[in-house]
């Protein structure tokens, strides 16, 4: 993913945090998922992440990075689960800590449910729980596909269920 390459090549963790908080692409445009962010949310996220950059720098895995960001950012008004996942993925790219499981948020939950995967009360699903067609993909690519194609997956799954009756 081009977006992750941008974050991976930033020169310092502080610059990565700035870019993550701003939710902007290399060309300065806002990422689609974050187009409704208020400046006060961005400012507070930046402040909190910079204040905690040493803990962020030392995370051993994406799971730990996500847990730290979830704990730090959830109390911030406007920092919702999609923003937190995206922030973790982008910082993970800089830190070379990428997800090995598919993290669930509103869009990915819909996509996973359309495939018949039980997702209630779950934060993630293992790649192995998905149909084998997903196996060539990395966990973050699967997350993107489930979210992006959730409506198509619902439609196809609904048709399959009707035919199997």
Q: Main β-sheet, in a few words?
A: 2 strands, antiparallel
Number of strands: 2
Question: Which H/E pattern describes the elements?
Answer: HHHHHHEHEHH
Low-confidence stretches: none
**DSSP strand content:** under 5%
Q: What is the share of helical residues?
A: 55-70%
Q: Return Rg in Å.
A: 17 Å
Q: How large is the count of helical segments?
A: 9
How is the largest sheet built, in terms of strand order? Answer: 1-2
Provide the structure class: mainly alpha
Distance between termini?
40 Å
Overall pLDDT score: 89
In the residues, how many domains can be counted?
Answer: 2
Shape: globular
Explained architecture:
The chain contains nine helices and two strands, in the order ααααααβαβαα. It has 165 residues and is mostly helical. It has a two-stranded antiparallel ribbon. Helix 5 crosses helix 6. The longest helix has 15 residues. It is globular and about 45 Å long. The model has no long low-confidence stretch (mean pLDDT 89).
Features:
two-stranded antiparallel ribbon; 165 residues; single chain; 58% helix
Give me a quick take on this structure:
The chain has helices at 2-8, 13-22, 39-51, 53-57, 62-73, 81-95, 106-114, 139-148, 150-164, and strands spanning 102-103, 124-125. The chain has 165 residues and is an all-alpha fold. The protein has two domains: 2-95, no CATH class; 102-164, no CATH class.
């Amino acid at each position: 993913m081009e977006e992750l390459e941008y974050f991976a090549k930033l020169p310092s963790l502080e610059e990565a945090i700035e870019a993550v908080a701003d939710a902007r692409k290399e060309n300065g445009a806002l990422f689609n998922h974050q187009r409704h962010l208020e400046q006060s949310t961005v400012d507070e996220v930046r402040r909190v992440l910079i204040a905690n950059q040493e803990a962020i720098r030392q995370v051993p895995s994406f799971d730990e990075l996500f847990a730290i960001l979830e704990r730090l950012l959830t109390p911030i008004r406007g920092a919702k689960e999609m923003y937190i996942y995206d922030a973790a993925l982008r910082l993970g790219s800089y830190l070379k800590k990428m997800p090995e499981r598919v993290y669930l948020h509103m869009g990915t939950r819909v996509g996973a449910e359309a495939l018949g995967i039980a997702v209630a009360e779950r934060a993630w699903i293992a790649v192995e729980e998905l149909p084998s067609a997903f196996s060539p993909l990395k966990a973050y690519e699967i997350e993107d596909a489930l979210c992006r194609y959730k409506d198509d997956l619902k439609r196809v799954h609904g048709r399959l269920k009707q035919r199997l009756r």
